[in-house]
Amino acid sequence: MAEQVRYGLIGTGMMGVEHLNNLAITPGAVVTAITDPVATSLTWARAALGAHANEVKAFDSPQALAASGLCDAVIVASPNHTHRDVLVPLFDAGLHILCEKPLATTLEDARWIVEEAAKTDRVFWTAMEYRYMPPVAEFIRALAEGAVGALKMLSIREHRFPFLVKVGNWNRFARNTGGTMVEKCCHFFDLMRLIVGSEAVRVYCSGAMDVNHRDELYDGAVPDIIDNSFTTVDFANGVRAMLDLSMFAEGAANQEEVTAVGDQARLDVFIPEGALVHSPRTGFGNPKKVTRRVVEVDPAALAAGSHHGSTFYEHQKFIAAVRGEGLVEVTAEDGLRAVAIGTAVEISAREKRVVAMSELGF
What we know:
The chain is an alpha/beta fold. 32% of the residues lie in helices and 24% in strands. The strands form 2 sheets. Strands 14-13-12-11-7-10-9-8-15 form a 9-stranded mixed sheet. It has a 6-stranded parallel sheet with strand order 3-2-1-4-5-6, sandwiched between helices. Helix 1 runs parallel beside helix 2, helix 5 runs antiparallel to helix 12 and helix 9 packs across helix 12. The longest helix is centred in the last third of the chain and has 20 residues. It is globular, with a radius of gyration of 20 Å.
């Protein structure tokens, strides 16, 4: 049997429950502790835990959970702006940590997390689950093996639904999320860095809040989060990448479409369709040689969450690292870099100008 790892969960809202569902099908994972200040969220967690709910202790704070001695690893799935405060007792207790994206909402907090993670021999993993969608993982592998030749252009399109309602509507304001381009799009900036194999040097974004949340009012304040944008990212190795985001296009056949173009071919991946399409260059007027295949996903992994099975596969990698059987694949530094690009993009959209990453110290 797999070595048992005891898990605590901080934040039992929608993403927290997805983690519980995936831990339930992860060999050797045992949930022992949870905490959330909202009673409704704790009720959701108990429902997800099912018959095991009575075996899991609910604590009144992250500090109490960290000090309990009941956990080997802790998942942080609390609201973005709470991450730094939540992580303090976890670092002090010497626990393995899986921290949801974005790592933090400010560069100051993200840098602090990187510094603290570097001081411990425990696993610190930033939860960038889009890397682990099986079709995307296969797309990344194929590119690394030269499927398009020398990569020159990378484009990511996400046409999706608006931000969902969260407890206290915290995700309606950039002060709590870092802004849409940090909160949502850090996933995509992480993918860009991973695929391109280089660091961003400058960004330009044209974006605004044009459709969603415009008629909403919370304590007299109107939401201030971008709901659509075009973003260009230039990388140090000369590759350029683009993000096309619309959060009022939930009727699209595919929510995510990623395209890589090199000097020899083009490769596409579509989610949730799961198809990879390879299109070699043939010369003008010659017959096309397009091939198409679908990457299958474990049905249990698909059923356990809303991220095309990625949370399940991410957990298999994380628990292996905790057991000393694998490496940390998404570090705190990766989390910081994704926040940094997102922060630069938010500045660009707001100030309507190109932003050099050097302005932010990168």
